[in-house]
Amino acid sequence: MRPTPHSPPSAKSRTAGLILAALCSFLMVACCASAQAQENGNVIRLVRNPDAAPEFKVAGLDGKPVTLADAHGKVVLLNFWATWCGPCRAEIPDLIELQTRYKDQLQIIGLTVDEEDAGTVEKVVDETGINYPVAMAPAELRIKYGGITALPTSFLLDSLGRVVQKHEGLRDPLLYELEIRALLGLPINARVERFEDTGEIFLAHADRASELPGVDLSKLGVEQRQAALHRFNAETCSCGCKFTLAQCRIWDRNCAVSKSRTEKIVAEVSAGVGPKGPRGKTATPTETTSPGARPQ
Fold it and tell me: Cis link prior to 152 (omega < 30° from 0)?
């Protein structure tokens, strides 16, 4: 089983923490560039037919319960972060400003993955003046939201409690504000595009995807492509994640196991070879894997 990438920097998980910190830094640059490009085009993207956000109830640092139900009727920004994550710390002032500016219509909730280190979290909250609820996010909560493979990760919910966008890495606060204002029905200098969730928000919808990270389907015909995608969604990855191959490619683009297996399937489909022999008698699995998160 792979080490949990968002574990706190204890002796047994320091290496994983350093790896994720490096990933955070990479995402900070890549995602800011992506956000800037999107803003320059005056376009924001929100999910069409969004799913309800998984409910939770956790104790805030002040001892009061933190729930989604308490924010019903408001736009919600769920921000998963850690005190040891540089990009997470960098965006705190912007989140504070957003909460102040839209205090009656927006609720930001900070969910920290700093397990076993509430004292450090409290110190950061006091030093930065965070003005929104902060709670420790237990493993079961992180699982509900897909495992949280990068920090920071933020989920944007509309006033009905449905997840309309997910952002990984440090983002330009203008992007958040445009999305929030769009959900509140306020004027924005941008066009809103709606898109189908094909696993970007919830891995359960990976079966809708027509493309997958690191999988080259360009040489397949239409029917072959559909056959390959069907097999990606029918077969469980053997890396230990308990995801389908399609879900694993979305969840972990660096997984060598799912990458190798999907490449092999593409080659077989291209050659007209199915899992039970030539000319594509595609096997149907006797078991289906629930699209939950990797073990924490």
Answer: yes
Catalytic residue among 31, 85, 239, 248: 85
Q: Which CATH superfamily is domain 14-195 in?
A: Glutaredoxin (3.40.30.10)
* Separation of CA 12 from chain center: 25
CB 165 within 8 A of CB 193: no
Active-site residue flag, 88: yes
What is the total residue count of the chain?
296
Diameter over CA atoms, the chain: 65
Contact 283, 234 (CB under 8 A): yes
| Backbone torsion region of residue 116, taken as left when φ is above 0, otherwise alpha when ψ lies between -120 and 50, otherwise beta | left
User: Is residue 239 among the annotated active site residues?
Assistant: no
SS3 197: coil
- Per domain, the residue ranges of the chain are 14-195, 203-278
Q: Taking the model in full, what pTM does it have?
A: 0.75
Q: Which residues pair with 106 in a beta bridge?
A: 75
Provide the residue-wise pLDDT of the chain in tens; the chain has 296 residues: 333 344 444 443 443 444 444 444 444 433 443 444 344 468 999 999 999 999 999 999 989 999 999 999 999 999 999 999 999 999 999 999 999 999 999 999 999 998 777 899 999 999 999 999 999 999 999 989 988 888 999 999 999 999 999 999 988 889 999 999 999 999 999 999 999 999 999 999 999 999 999 999 999 999 999 999 999 999 999 999 999 999 999 989 999 999 999 999 999 999 998 776 444 343 333 333 333 333 33
Annotated catalytic residue, options 24, 31, 32, 88: 88
